[in-house]
Task: structure prediction
Amino acid sequence: MTGTSRAARVQSTPARPRHAVDTGYQRGEETRARIILAAIKCFGEFGFSGASTRDIANAAGVNAPALQYYFDNKEGVYKACIEYILELVLGQMGEAIELAEQVVADPNATDEQLIDAFCELQSRKGGFMEKSPEIEGWHMFMAREQAGLGPDAGFKVFHDRFSSRLAAVGSNIVTRLAGVEPDNEAMRVRAVCISTLGMAFRVMRRSVDCSMGWGTEPSPERNRMVREAVLEQTRYLLERTVRERKDAAK
Result:
């Protein structure tokens, strides 16, 4: 069945209880996914306030009531977008976060093990940005979300399941390497600075590409250079933190 006929079916079918199990289940899941992808593009382009449910429905090729059928309201659509992206992010980084948490929990972990765990997080983060699926508008969607321009419900989902864990493990590694208490503000700031190395290549892509004289086409070689530079700087700054601790102990 084509996308047009599915949209027509949504328009002509009376409302049914959500998640009904019938022969149309697969078509329903396909329609739901199509709405999410269209919503990511619309929210990325216009923001949460600027994107209407009609805009999203039109982009997805469905009628407006279909959004209420699957998501209740616009905030429900936004939250579904967050969960969709979150699953992709955790698929790339979840294992590295868990391993880093295990290293931090080990009181006998060496400096090198802690540094390696942090660097693996940086590598996985860079790998996700390089290999992320082609989802139109998702970079702008996440830029707006991280800037606090989305609804609180979406922020809480992403923060609780990913951002807070990543920030906590990074902070714990840096404070351990520095030999200070976990709540040391200066070292927590340092952890954020280190963990966001290379962020300009993602959130300021157009400006960076222009200043570097790069085109807009994806470049694996360019991505490799950025990732290697980030890892080099990450390791250098973490090793410097260790040296500072050892020098202070003399």
